[in-house]
Specification:
alpha+beta
Length: 284
């Protein structure tokens, strides 16, 4: 009889566990940071702010959060990795946008945040293994433009940008999941072929200074690159201060989330592998 009671107790505990969290990798500290964010959002009335202000203030919440690369890797089975303790440029952007969307909802639970984050991070919002993740920023932009939603701006002087991606399929050994599953490289190559059919408008970096007035607070900045096989090397948000545009981003140089002390134009000019920017404006 006692064994039956113990079994029922375990079963009940299992039933109480959130279905949304059974396929989520996170630490207790992530949930505590999430709770602190909700308090911060209420104190600043972020829900009532214009989109541009909301985006920047959400991003500023993560100021000084340590920069750590590769935080999405490591699971033998793909799970949604939630890490608010350590960020790289992409996870900063994803978390900020997920929290922005969360504040527009009546459901502000951690589970709902995870669902929104999954929708942003995976192709059509469906997590179905490593290959379903949006690995290239070009596909990430295309797949998320109606989910978030945002508009890719055509700035004065903008030119056609073709992704021309091939880096993952030609460097499979650099990615633990692809190294463990060499056959997936064929699938990645097919994804790259699909990505390479996309086209965006980008602004070469020598023209960024002249387009400053067209960029607003909270605009998503995707920095294109000269590195062969890659489309975008870095991401962040535009911050406008005294008529000049700066970049709020997870900096690998500073090892934390910062607002760059250089203007966006200066930041790009000082980095030879950066070729220009794609600018997306969050619409609501």
């Amino acid at each position: 009889m006692k064994k039956i009671h113990i079994f029922c107790l375990v079963l009940c505990i299992a039933c109480v566990k959130s279905p949304a969290q059974t396929n989520v990798n996170f630490q207790p500290e992530d949930q505590r940071i999430f709770d602190r964010f909700l308090q911060y959002a209420d104190q600043k009335n972020l829900s009532d702010q214009p989109v541009s202000s909301s985006i920047i203030n959400i991003a500023k919440f993560f100021t000084n959060t340590p920069y750590v690369g590769g935080t999405l890797e490591g699971d033998s089975v793909e799970r949604l990795r939630v890490n608010l303790r350590e960020l790289d440029c992409t996870t900063l952007v994803e978390n900020v946008l997920a929290l922005h969307l969360l504040l527009q909802s009546t459901d502000r639970s951690f589970d709902h945040f995870c669902q929104i984050l999954q929708n942003i991070r995976y192709r059509d919002g469906k997590m179905d293994g490593y290959l379903s993740r949006l690995h290239y920023t070009s596909e990430w932009l295309e797949n998320n433009k109606t989910k978030i939603p945002f508009e890719i701006l055509n700035l004065p002087g903008g030119q056609k940008f073709s992704p021309n991606v091939s880096y993952m399929s030609t460097h499979c050994s650099l990615y633990p999941a692809l190294k463990a599953h060499p056959d997936w490289c064929v699938d990645i190559a097919q994804t790259e072929a699909d990505v390479n059919r996309l086209s965006f408008s980008y602004l070469p970096k020598n023209l960024v200074n002249s387009a400053t007035k067209e960029i607003q607070n909270g605009d998503l900045i995707a920095i294109t690159t000269h590195i062969q096989g890659l489309d975008v090397a870095h991401m962040g948000f535009a911050v406008v201060q005294k008529g000049k545009v700066y970049l709020l981003h997870a900096s690998s140089d500073a090892k934390k989330v910062i607002i760059s002390t250089e203007t966006l134009h200066g930041y790009l000019a000082n980095r030879k592998n950066h070729s220009g920017i794609i600018v997306a404006r969050i619409e609501k």
